[in-house]
Write a structure and sequence with these properties.
Blueprint: E1 2-9, E2 41-42, H1 44-61, H2 78-81, H3 91-96, E3 105-107, E4 110-113, H4 121-126, E5 130-138, E6 145-156, E7 163-171, H5 175-187, E8 209-213, H6 218-226
Antiparallel strand pairs: 1-7, 1-8, 2-4, 3-7, 4-7, 5-6
The structure holds zinc ion (ZN).
Length: 228
């Protein structure tokens, strides 16, 4: 079945999606990801990764036997090789792929949209879209500060009624896969890092997605999930 889903993510507060280049010489350890034209984005790969873990959580809650990402040796098809299922892929790998199976879906980058009603294009160019925040690394094991581990991260200022838009397109085999994917989008409450510092929460009041293809109603998808 042909799938096309429009995604619209509206952050509630500042957003940290590191991994951008151009950080050298600026004193920033982790910069925001930009397109070559300077536009801020949430990379499709980051969005896909976040959505995958959300779908994994839901699938497990529904009692589905799924593999253990992200270690390749714990993922499909290895995960099932030792039981009677043999060479097969779990529902999560069928949607998002595994190191041995290409995902049937592609995830575009989510592009920062200018809030048209608030800013003219020339005003928008002058708006400060990111800021640099200092932080201190804490040891994951002992929960104490690591010596000389002060770092600087660039975060996106998103308190301006902005949104990030992108698309998921491709093919899925079953309505069950589609229902799980959509439940994952619905359940997304945050994106990006530094969540413990209050960054990256997603506004849940607006519609986060629109299913363009296939022509299924929400109630049909909910029915599908109830069958699980
Ligand atoms: Zn799997």
């Amino acid at each position: 079945m042909n799938v096309e889903i429009q995604v619209n993510i509206k952050p509630k507060d500042s957003l940290f999606i590191g991994g951008g280049s151009g950080a050298s010489g600026t004193g920033v350890d982790s910069a925001t990801v930009r397109r070559p034209d300077g536009c801020l984005i949430i990379p499709g790969s980051s969005f896909k990764g976040k959505l995958r873990s959300e779908c994994e959580r839901i699938a497990r809650a529904l009692g589905e036997d799924i593999c253990l990402s992200p270690k390749p040796e714990n993922m499909c098809p290895h995960y099932f090789l030792n039981d009677e299922k043999g060479m097969c892929y779990c529902i999560i790998c069928k949607i998002f792929g595994s190191p041995w199976l290409k995902s049937p879906l592609s995830f575009t980058d989510l592009i920062w949209q200018r809030p048209y009603f608030h800013f003219k294009p020339e005003e928008w160019k002058r708006i400060r879209k990111t800021e640099v925040r200092p932080g201190v690394s804490i040891s994951r094991y002992t929960r104490v500060k690591i010596e000389k581990a002060l770092f600087f991260k660039e975060v996106m200022n998103t308190g301006m009624d902005i949104s990030f838009e992108g698309k998921i397109t491709g093919n899925l085999e079953t309505t069950k896969e589609l229902a799980l994917l959509i439940s994952g989008i619905r359940a997304l409450l945050s994106i990006g890092g530094m969540k413990s510092r209050g960054l990256g929460r997603i506004d849940d009041t607006n519609e986060k997605y629109r299913v363009i293809k296939p022509d299924y109603s929400d109630s049909k998808l909910e029915e599908e999930l109830k069958k699980w």
